Amino acid sequence: MKNIQQTYTIAATPVEVWRALTEPKIIERWSDASAKFVPQAGMDYSLWDGSIVGKIVEVVPNKKLAQTWKPNDWTIENSIVTFTLTPTDDGTLVELLHENVEEFDYEGTTEGWDVYYLGAIKRMFEMQAKKPRNAKPGNTKSTKQTKAAKGKIETKKKKTMAKKKVVAKKVAKKATKKK
Length: 179
Description:
Layout: E1 2-10, H1 14-22, H2 24-31, E2 44-47, E3 52-60, E4 64-68, E5 70-71, E6 80-88, E7 91-101, H3 106-130, H4 140-178
Antiparallel strand pairs: 1-7, 2-3, 3-4, 3-5, 4-6, 6-7
């Protein structure tokens, strides 16, 4: 089995990144899908409306999270994902180690971490940083700009969801062909 190692610098504190990894409401914000997650060793979790499931293996709040990883179409049971968070001057360094990745899905999983998981968390914080912080209530210009920005974000979300569906179909098609 192959392993995936990736690093990300996310413009947020380790506490904020931890919350994005472990709080269902925030997970649902960056993933656009339902999540069940209790950051406690031994607890079951599910992501993307149940298409990814597993158990929490290790929890060191704001520093380290390890969990098993089992997509619906994988046959292996011993895939482990570990996130290690380290504070930096620019925010948080997130080191990802994904051990025992299913061979047929190695490329898709590698891309998935960047596009749909840690990359999505990073983009979420970048978008939050761009929001106007000094908008005064009743300021028409600020309100119009905010509404326009929200419209752009919604359009982007719709396009992202459409791309996710296309990628998921391609991955499923490849998996079916290889079986």
